[in-house]
TrEMBL record:
GO molecular function annotations of the record: ATP binding
InterPro entries from the UniProt entry: AAA+_ATPase (IPR003593), ABC_transporter-like_ATP-bd (IPR003439), ABC_transporter-like_CS (IPR017871), ABC_transporter_ATP-binding (IPR050763), P-loop_NTPase (IPR027417)
Keyword Coiled coil attached: no
Subcellular location: Cell membrane
CDD domains: ABC_DR_subfamily_A
Record-given protein name: ABC transporter ATP-binding protein
SMART domains: AAA
Amino acid sequence: MDDELAISVRGLRKAYGDNVAVAGVDLDVRRGEVFALLGPNGAGKTTTVEILEGYRRRDAGEVRVLGSDPASPAPDWRSRVGIVLQGTGEFDELTVAEVVRHFAGFYPDADDPEKVIERVGLGDKRRARTHSLSGGQKRRLDVALGIIGRPELLFLDEPTTGFDPEARRDFWELIRDLAAAGTTILLTTHYLDEAEALADRVGVIAGGQVVEVAAPDQLGNRQAALATVSWRTPEGALESAQSATPTALVAELAARFGGEVPGLTVTRPTLEDVYLTMIGHR
Ligand code: ATP
């Protein structure tokens, strides 16, 4: 398989009894890419990701992650992959710094624990016992444990669930830094703004299959969609028109109004619009 690919999946299948969770997934994630998996509840995202992480057996299909089959990986494979797990509560009595140091000990080339704690925004909590952290702070600690081994590939399953808006923005910055340093990132999310802000490419999964893979601004042929131009008439009524050439329409309106067009907006379908159409059609 291609060395340019961090992840390559062909014909992946997994059923739980009669329930087919993954029904023939094909997926490529390039090295250095941030790839977001989107899909409704029960679409098969977590099952797919757990197979890629080596935590779940597949029924069929070919899977390569950093050149290994996760079901029988090369000896150093696990230390090259970072996984952000939901905290186990196992280390409740330890402080943040102790837990991060403890995990650093598992890796041959771990990052500096103090630096990582700062990076995830827990600098002022380094001496706090982990049971005293808030939900969002615990999630940051999970992220710290996922990146302490300097992974080449990082799996993030719904990483910002429970974060306040500021923490989300900080987290996005962290992901951008990691990506800029060359880390490949596969994230699942239910937040379309998160996929749009972070992902080079988005894969939409529904019913256990990949429906589409595209850059966020290309998904569902979004760029080619008609723009909606809205404005107010001199009487104050709202008018709108769909146009493939909104610039020309705005120029025409400007001429008609002799300058500023009242209440002018030009919009195209959002990622959420195309996503909902995509999964709603199934
Ligand atoms: P969500 O967005 O809700 O996390 P998901 O896309 O991650 O959903 P999966 O968790 O992969 O979806 O679930 C896919 C299907 O497989 C669902 O129908 C689910 O009920 C089923 N499933 C998942 N895990 C198991 C399991 N351990 N045993 C039996 N069925 C399972």
